[in-house]
Each structure stands twice: as structure tokens, then as C-alpha cells.
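Troubleshooting log. The previous structure file for this entry was overwritten by mistake, so regenerating from the original sequence record. Sequence copied from the archived sheet and checked twice against the printout by T.R.
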Amino acid sequence: MRPVTRADIGWSVTSTEQGRGLKGGAVPIATRSTSIGSSSSGLVHPEHVATVAYPRYMVSDVAGGPGWIIRGADLRPAITDLDTFRAGIAEDPLTKPIELLWTGDTDAALRALGLLEQTPRVRALAADCRRDRGETAVAVQEYDLLVAECLGTAREAVMRQHRGKALLANGEAERAVEDFERAVELRRTADPVLRASAEQGLAVARARMNTG
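Regenerated output below.
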């Protein structure tokens, strides 16, 4: 089994680029802001990479890797520079389905993933597709299996973190908080970018639980 790296935040490949994003955190605010703008191509313009707000809370985006971030708005990866992103993931055998998923073509991503050996990583990407298609209960069920299979291994943190995202999408903020708390604990001594992504998820989950 390959070691889990910071790029597993969003199921991409290992990067030597240093993280440029801020830690995800929750700060009380008075008003609600809108989500980050994105183009129809699925790319996010760099000038729009900023903080976004849930009711009464503001959560920062975090850097994920070359050419992509994790949005504080919905905890989903967003490509900010397509050429840089493609160069950074060029050697990843899952390049095609990852780009399809992250640019919003979940149907094509699922078809591509269905043709591959059903490794934990492939299954997790497929669960992310289900989540983004609105099949959130199905995504949670698959992540329940994946977390159980990965307990005590290097993959447990990333599986819990992604289950936390599926749980949030399914309206289960309390369970999501538990998963993100465990992911933060498991990543306490990990790469700062991995740790920041887990802390970002925990901040969002706590804000969602506090605001309903």
C-alpha cells in the first residue's frame, strides 16, 4: 500500500510545492457572504480565491497542490490553473477521472472509474462522485465501508476526512465533526497542508452544527 501524502487531501498525486493557503478556521461574522465565483469550465479564478461565509462563520480556502485549492464554501477541490494542475498530476494513473470530477462532469468520471480496478482510492473517488451528484446517502455508505477497512492504517485519516464531507452533504453535521476531529488528531504531526485541510473541514462541520 502506498504511503498517504498531502495530495490525498483531494485524491491527487504527491507534490513538492509548498502550501500557500491559510489554515481553515472559524471566525464569527455578522453577515452571510456568497460563495466563490467559478467559471463554466469548472475553474476558479485566482482573484476569487478568498474566504467565504456560512451564517455567522467564515472559513478559509486552503491550498491543495499545484493549480488547485480546497474551497471553504463546500470543501470541494477547485482547479485554479488548469495547465499547472495537469502538470502536477501528469503521472497519476487517475488523472482523467480526477479532472472530470473536479470540473463537474461526475457522470463521465464515474464511467472512467468503473473501468478500473476497484482499489480503495478508486472507490473513494466514486463515492465523491455520488456525493456531488446528490446521492449523499450512497456516498456515506461507501465511506462507512472504506473507513472500516482502513482503521489503523495510513489511509484512515483521508478516509475519515472524505466521509466527513459526505456526512455534511447528507446533513449529518454531528457525525462529520467526529470524523474531522479524528482526522485532525491523526494528522497532528503530518505535513502542514494535510493538517490544514483537516482543520478546515472541522471548522466547517462545527459551524454547520452550530448554525443548523
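The longest strand covers residues 62-65. Archived copy saved in two places this time.
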